[in-house]
Write a structure and sequence with these properties.
By secondary structure, this protein is α/β, with parallel strands linked by helices. About 40% of the residues lie in helices and about 20% in strands. The protein starts with about 30 loop residues before the first strand and ends in an 8-residue tail after the last helix.
Length: about 375
């Protein structure tokens, strides 16, 4: 006897549809754009608990500062590249109907003789209003972006932001802040480095400095040195000479209770090399802790590879092989001055700082751990 056909056999399966993700409320969105010497980066995000959720992003190498060291001006080609990238940012802002935003430019526009003319051209061609921020605000925003990475065991903190045209260093004493409140004390610095009216135990900014040397400007200054190792050594010692006015430079720092947080493409690339990643993975890099010895080993590996080997390295590539060495020269100079067992790698920076500052000022972030 033939088996009975199961009830419902042969019927079309019932489709199970995933609901389309709800579009975020434009009133809840914030945007931050960072136009640097090398790159144009933007984030669109909405507050979520004590942090934020990224809705859209953009990042492109525009080399706005190409030739700036030689001429003192932004070139036509670099401005054209940048405006093309900014048009894409404008389209993303329009599509997401973002109303709250800060769009800032940094060292290249601070230094260029024709920066104001460029800002007006951007407004005319894209409708975007760029704001040139000063070094102290740039340093402050880099600091608060890294607040979630600050250890509760840290007493002395050095935040380093290696940019394309400048490098910001901020030394912060948080030894008098209760341990569990130390990351939050860093976040409160968005009000300013020297505010004294906070009802909470405050992080003390011992000193800060903006060195007008970043990965692009330092590379350009030593372009005429042909030997790879000699150029690296000269860049590193030259950068250290520019730290003489930074107060902590004169003091020896104990490793215990001392943390460096490094935010830049240089630091994240070194971290990716240390981990042996074939493809970059932010989740493995952001927040990674490295020792001075581990970083030194990676940098020595870069020197052994030479320019051609670095070009073939999937973590570096042709476009960045020279920049990674000027960035590594800066990093080596810092670790020569202040060796540490805890350098925290931050895949975050000015954009995140701009978002935190806007959201914190509007009171939309919850208190609590990041």
């Amino acid at each position: 006897m033939a088996p009975k056909r199961p009830k419902g056999a042969g019927a079309f399966p019932k489709a199970v549809e995933s609901p389309a993700p709800a579009r975020p409320d434009p009133d809840a969105l914030y945007a931050a754009l960072d136009l640097g010497t090398n790159s144009c980066r933007m984030l669109i995000a909405q507050p979520k608990a004590s942090g934020f959720h990224v809705v859209d992003s953009f990042s492109k190498s525009v080399q706005l500062g190409a030739g700036l060291e030689r001429t003192g001006r932004l070139s036509r080609s670099s401005m054209a590249r940048t405006i093309q990238a900014l048009r894409i940012c404008q389209q993303k802002l329009k599509r997401n109907k973002v109303r709250r935003m800060r769009l800032v430019a940094t060292e290249a526009c601070r230094r260029a003789k024709n920066a104001r003319e460029f800002i007006r051209q951007v407004k005319r061609e894209t409708g975007l209003t760029l704001e040139i921020i000063q070094p102290e605000e740039e340093a402050r925003l880099a600091v608060i972006s890294c607040a979630p990475l600050v250890s509760t065991k840290t007493d002395q903190l050095l935040v380093v932001d290696i940019g394309g045209g400048s490098t910001e260093l901020v030394w912060i004493d948080i030894s008098s802040v209760p341990r569990r409140d130390r990351p939050a004390a860093i976040m409160r610095l968005h009000h300013g480095f020297h505010t004294t009216d906070s009802p909470f135990p405050a992080a003390k900014v011992v000193d800060w400095i903006s060195v007008p040397l970043g990965v692009a400007t330092l590379r350009d200054q030593f372009n005429d040195v042909e030997d790879d190792s000699a150029r690296f050594a000269l860049m590193s010692w030259f950068f250290e000479e520019n730290l003489a006015d930074f107060a902590p430079y004169k003091d020896e720092q104990a490793r215990l209770g001392f943390q460096i947080v490094g935010t830049s493409g240089t630091v994240t690339t070194v971290a990716a090399s240390h981990l042996g990643l074939k493809r970059y993975d932010r989740t493995k890099v952001d927040g990674l802790r490295m020792t001075s010895d581990q970083i030194d080993k990676v940098i020595r590996g870069y020197l052994e590879l030479g320019p051609q080997g670095r070009r073939r390295d999937p973590r570096i590539g042709d476009d960045r092989q020279a920049l990674i060495m000027s960035g590594s020269a800066i990093l080596q100079a810092l670790l020569r001055c202040w060796p540490t067992d805890r350098l925290s790698v931050a895949d975050r920076g000015l954009r995140e700082g701009l978002l935190y500052a806007q959201m914190s000022a509007d009171g939309v972030l919850e208190d609590g751990p990041f």
